[in-house]
Amino acid sequence: MITAVDTSVLIDILEGDAEFGETSAAALAAAAGVGALVACEVVWAEVATAYAPDEDVADDLRTLGLRFEPMSELAALRAAKAWAKYREAGGMRRRIAADFLVGAHASVQADRLLTRDDGFHRRHFEGLAVVAPPR
What we know:
Elements: E1 2-5, H1 7-14, H2 21-32, E2 36-39, H3 41-51, H4 58-63, E3 66-68, H5 73-88, H6 98-109, E4 112-114, H7 118-124, E5 129-131
Parallel strand pairs: 1-2, 1-4, 2-3, 4-5
């Protein structure tokens, strides 16, 4: 079982978020207990920017058990299709949002996605198994 991990969960853990830190850490540990943890370049960049922009956070991410998994061509094209469908339905964003890239990566290169933004990913990536930490 391969679990792709979204930025929100990692920031919760790395910053020790008072509201979500413990539940996100427990969800990450549970996912690690059943298989590999991966994150694409979008997640790594977002975490590095939000968590420690002046430091190399790769060691921190590896310590959490994550493996860097670049997005495939198929995942990039799936993100574009999902974004286009969103725009056709009246979505206001004009550029491909990071969430579309993360969701497409998970749908192509993993078995499921661990995220707190579960509604978005379920809505835009039909068939993607989404796991959310308890709220």
